[in-house]
Amino acid sequence: MEKYNFRFVDDSKNQNTGLTAEEINFLQKELNLKFPKEYIYYLQNAGRNSNVFQVETNADELRKNQHKLRLELDKLNVLQKEDVLFIKKEVEYVKYFDSNFETYYFFNLSENREVPNLYIFEEVCINEHWNTFEKKITKSKEDNFVAFINKKTDDKYGITIKQNIKNIPLYIISIPISIILVIILGIEILKDKITSK
């Protein structure tokens, strides 16, 4: 089995638990889609429970939301001939609008079956008065699904010592620059005081 560079955190209060190969094969058969290898790896490690990004693994919900996503995409006339794989739906109630807002996470398998991009389909406000909304698809800011999960992990658990070590050259460069800026600022303040007297 290929190993992908997901950052899984061992959290004793909220353990990542995966699905078996049989469970994953069942889901693929139910959707009549072959899942990307990196997504299968994620499901094997955090499919049943994830401490950062819980995906849908109930076959009935998966089928239902896959169908709903397809209908929404067809209404917008986008990705109509593309194979998409729904992986998660979030529903957020916003009291101000007295309404639920749905967000779908999905892969476009037609672009790249091995390392597909993660897309987000959601309703977003398109004006400053918060009274006009539009359904839209955006590509995840991260390069791929592994980077997306690792960013979620970093946001929740902080960055690792290894990541801090990678930032040491940046810290080393920023210290002299900061000192120079403080000196320049001090000189400018001193000049102002001398010229104002």
Structure description:
With 197 residues, the chain is α+β, with helices and mostly antiparallel strands. The protein has helices spanning 21-31, 37-46, 59-75, 145-157, 161-166, 168-196, and strands at residues 84-94, 99-108, 118-125, 133-139. Helix 1 (21-31) packs parallel to helix 3. It is extended. The mean pLDDT is 87.
Outline of the structure:
The protein has 197 residues and is an alpha+beta fold.
Radius of gyration: 23 Å
Distance N to C terminus: 76 Å
Mean of all residue-level pLDDT scores: 87
Reported for the largest beta sheet, the result is: 4 strands, antiparallel
Low-confidence stretches are none
Oligomer: single chain
What's the topology here?
Elements: H1 21-31, H2 37-46, H3 59-75, E1 84-94, E2 99-108, E3 118-125, E4 133-139, H4 145-157, H5 161-166, H6 168-196
Helix pairs in contact: 1-3
Give me some keywords for this one.
197 residues; alpha+beta; four-stranded antiparallel sheet; 6 helices; 4 strands; 44% helix; 18% strand; extended
